[in-house]
Specification:
- By secondary structure, this protein is α/β, with parallel strands linked by helices.
- Helix content is 45%, strand content 12%.
- It has 13 helices and 13 strands.
- Strand 1 (116-120), helix 5 and strand 2 (145-151) form a beta-alpha-beta unit.
- Helix 1 crosses helix 3 (31-41).
- It is elongated and about 110 Å long.
Length: 426
């Protein structure tokens, strides 16, 4: 009320000139004057009496339906918003895991002066005579990385898997658990790589022949020297290998390495695939699969590498197996060309017996890749720790290190001599 009176008085002062014979007290005391000012400048207020709205039964029903629709709309809006937020959080989590994986790898390699590793046949993980020399090597030399089979050349899974097909395949041969791997990794402060044999699997090919490459000459899954190849264009085969890689990552490996990530190296033209085998389809199927695997692994905090033939570093086509260097590099984090001197034919790089010149052969082969633009960070060759003397194995390692790249030693039966490696200071 005080505000109203003040407003009225203020207007009165502005509107009505104040002369010497008009006093403010007179204005305030003149109730008629106040009423006139109020009626002129203040809106009138109409008091509306309360009234009752009467609805028919049909109108009540209609109103109830409308109210339910409004409630459902509110719920849908909330649910949709929640789903969008959940999807964003999942995406952020994937990006964080990917960042952490690369950051941890970078920090590990900086601290340890690169990757220096060896392959441990997964079947030997529980074999004392095999594993104890590996422990000694890890304790006393500069070796800081171990590659262990997760899915073997025989099609066995060396861990407890929850993949649906394993009930039919009956292919679990458990050698380690997630706890075993974490303890192993932490005890020796190593980088741990899980090897997954991809499109070569005798068990899967024979249990699920429609997912294997078909040999039209006999109507059976195609085999080559006892190896059975899955069809890289088959959806079920791809999904199975992807699921193995995901489980391997979740076991605690830092990186998953795909071997036999290729079509069979054969001149046999009597083979049938889900999708016709051409240069275009082969490279498409191999690289699209690598892309998909890497996406899933990065989201879970693991990196991806691929084993490739050494000649891929120089080949200008896929040689019928789907491995083309430039496209491979786009879809993996690292490549491991198998530059075993014993695998090079007579006359390679000008040497009549390449196996006797490990340093020269490996240097020349890796340089082929570097000249084609392979980043040294992505190049991590498999070196030969078989059919060589201790000195020749050391020359394998020296060739890689002189070029500034990491390395992995391969010996199928897990036999390595301490003399291969540089000793650590006590």
């Amino acid at each position: 009320m005080n505000r109203v009176i003040f407003t009225v008085l203020f207007i009165a002062i502005i509107v009505i000139p104040i002369s010497s014979n008009i006093h403010l007290d007179d204005i305030i005391s003149d109730s008629e004057f106040i009423k006139k000012i109020e009626s002129k400048f203040l809106p009138t207020t109409t008091v509306v009496e309360a009234f009752e709205i009467k609805l028919t039964e049909q109108e009540k029903t209609d109103l109830k339906v409308v109210n339910e629709k409004i409630n459902n709309l509110e719920k849908n809006v909330y649910s949709s918003t929640a789903n969008i937020l959940d999807a964003e959080l999942v995406n952020i989590n994937k990006k964080v895991n990917e960042f952490v994986a690369f950051y941890n790898y970078e920090q590990f390699t900086l601290k340890n002066n690169g990757i220096k590793g060896l392959y441990l046949n997964g079947y030997h993980y529980l074999v004392k005579d095999k594993i104890e020399p590996i422990f000694q090597i890890l304790e006393s030399t500069d070796v800081n990385t171990v590659v262990i089979d997760v899915k073997t050349d025989n099609g066995h899974l060396l861990y407890e898997s929850e993949i649906e097909e394993v009930l039919t395949l009956n292919n679990i041969r458990k050698k380690f658990s997630a706890e075993d791997l974490i303890n192993f990794k932490n005890s020796y402060e190593i980088y741990l790589i899980g090897r997954v044999v991809a499109f070569q699997d005798p068990i899967y090919a024979q249990k699920y022949p429609t997912s294997a490459i078909l040999d039209l000459s006999n109507g059976q899954p195609y085999s080559q020297d006892g190896q059975f190849f899955l069809d890289p264009s088959d959806d079920l085969a791809r999904k199975y290998i992807l699921n193995v890689a995901i489980e391997a990552c979740e076991l605690g490996f830092d990186e998953i390495q795909l071997d036999y990530i290729r079509y069979p190296d054969t001149n046999n033209t009597n083979l049938q695939f889900d999708e016709e085998s051409t240069l275009e389809t082969r490279t498409k199927n191999i690289n699209s699969f690598l892309f998909e695997v890497r996406e899933e692994l990065h989201a879970r905090g693991c990196l991806l590498s691929a084993d490739i033939f050494g000649y891929v570093l120089i080949a200008k086509n896929d040689n019928g197996i789907g491995q083309l260097l430039e496209s491979l590099l786009e879809n993996v984090d690292f490549i491991s060309p198998m530059v075993y001197p014993s695998h090079y034919s007579k006359g390679s790089y000008g040497f009549s017996n390449p196996n006797s010149y490990p340093y020269e052969i490996i240097t020349a082969s890796l340089n082929d890749g570097l000249k084609r633009g392979v980043d040294k960070v992505k190049l991590r060759p498999f070196l030969q720790a078989f059919w060589h003397t201790d000195e020749q194995v050391r020359l394998n390692i020296k060739a890689a290190e002189d070029l500034g790249v990491g390395w992995l030693l391969w010996n199928n039966v897990s036999n390595y001599n301490l003399e291969y490696f540089a000793k650590l200071d006590s």
